[in-house]
């Protein structure tokens, strides 16, 4: 039982880190309908920057700040490819993550950086409580932003760019803002993970796009028809549930090498459930109208 509790606590801590990634990816995937694949390069970018700055003896919080800033710049690079060079959104993200692979290696000087014996951001505080505070602060900041005029227009841009233009605004501006904010938060998540696990690795970003999607899709399934849960809350809950399922599977004997397969199956399962639920609700609505 002690082993199970320890495994679940670890899953919650990692889930809180992933929740920040999910909230960031939510801005582009859910609101802008912009499927940004640069996530898989930005996430390790944040980890490597945080790790290198800590290795240089700087305050670990400066490492986190550096990760956030450079993550935002990576989002700006993706926007540059998309808008200025007229590259397809999917290809723009692929170009960015491909470039970041080499950049991350140059930043770290190696494919793996260890932080053993170095000071981290937790300062001997309980990691779960520290990460919970960070996740809540990020949630509050995003909720506040989305209530602003700029945030509202960002949400509209994905569904109705013509309306944004009719309001005298340039929808590309909100795509740029969304990409910058999204990648800044994703890099923050990577920086937190480097501090949490004590190292940064070049393969950290592999299949992280599925983790982000899984968190968002699972979160959207929770109280699907209710407006009481905000999208940020759904992203946090989705990331926690996703990690708890994965952690439980490993505890029960799953080979860690099969975790990516399990992740894909989790996503497929929730998508199928959502589609089934949506189809069932539609049939019920048609039946009620007929009566």
Provide the fold topology.
Blueprint: H1 2-32, H2 39-55, H3 60-84, H4 89-108, E1 112-114, H5 127-147, H6 149-159, H7 161-166, H8 171-197, E2 199-201, H9 208-221, H10 231-251, H11 259-290
Antiparallel strand pairs: 1-2
Helix pairs in contact: 1-5, 1-6, 1-8, 1-9, 1-10, 2-3, 2-4, 2-8, 3-4, 3-8, 6-8, 9-10, 9-11, 10-11
Kindly list the characteristics that best describe this protein.
single chain; 291 residues; mainly alpha; two-stranded antiparallel sheet; 11 helices; disordered C terminus; cell membrane; Branched-chain amino acid ABC transporter, permease protein; ABC_transp_permease
Can you count the beta strands?
A: 2
Sheet of most strands: 2 strands, antiparallel
Q: Would you identify the regions where 5 or more consecutive residues have pLDDT less than 50? A: 285-291
What is the general shape? globular
Characterise the protein shown here:
GO terms for molecular function: transmembrane transporter activity. The chain crosses the membrane at residues 6-27, 60-82, 89-108, 128-146, 174-196, 202-223, 235-253, 259-277. Keywords: Cell membrane, Membrane, Transmembrane, Transmembrane helix. This protein has 291 residues and is mainly alpha-helical. It has one domain. It contains eleven helices and two strands; from the N terminus they run H-H-H-H-E-H-H-H-H-E-H-H-H. The protein has a two-stranded antiparallel ribbon with strand order 1-2. The radius of gyration is 20 Å and the shape is globular. The N and C termini lie far apart (54 Å).
């Amino acid at each position: 039982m002690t082993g199970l509790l320890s495994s679940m606590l670890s899953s919650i801590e990692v889930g809180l880190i992933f929740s920040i990634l999910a909230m960031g990816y939510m801005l582009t995937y859910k609101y802008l309908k912009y499927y940004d694949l640069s996530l898989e390069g930005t996430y390790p970018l944040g980890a490597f920057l945080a790790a290198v700055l800590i290795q240089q003896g700087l305050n670990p919080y400066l490492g986190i700040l550096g990760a956030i800033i450079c993550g935002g710049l990576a989002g700006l690079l993706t926007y540059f490819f998309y808008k200025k060079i007229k590259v397809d959104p999917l290809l723009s993200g692929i170009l960015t993550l491909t470039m970041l692979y080499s950049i991350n290696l140059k930043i770290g000087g190696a494919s793996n950086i260890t932080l053993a014996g170095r000071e981290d951001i937790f300062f001997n505080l309980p990691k779960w409580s520290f990460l919970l505070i960070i996740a809540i602060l990020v949630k509050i900041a995003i909720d506040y932003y989305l209530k602003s005029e700029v945030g509202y227009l960002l949400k509209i841009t994905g569904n109705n760019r013509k309306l944004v233009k009719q309001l005298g605004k340039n929808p590309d501006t909100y795509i740029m803002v969304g990409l910058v904010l999204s990648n800044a938060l994703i890099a923050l998540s990577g920086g937190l993970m480097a501090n949490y696990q004590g190292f940064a690795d070049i393969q950290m970003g592999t299949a992280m796009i599925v983790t982000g999607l899984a968190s968002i899709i699972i979160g959207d399934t929770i109280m699907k028809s209710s407006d009481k849960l905000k999208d940020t809350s759904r992203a946090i809950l989705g990331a926690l549930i996703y990690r708890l399922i994965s952690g439980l599977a490993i505890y029960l004997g799953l080979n860690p090498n099969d975790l990516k397969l399990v992740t894909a199956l989790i996503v497929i399962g929730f998508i199928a459930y959502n589609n089934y639920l949506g189809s069932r609700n539609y049939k019920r609505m048609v039946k009620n109208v007929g009566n």
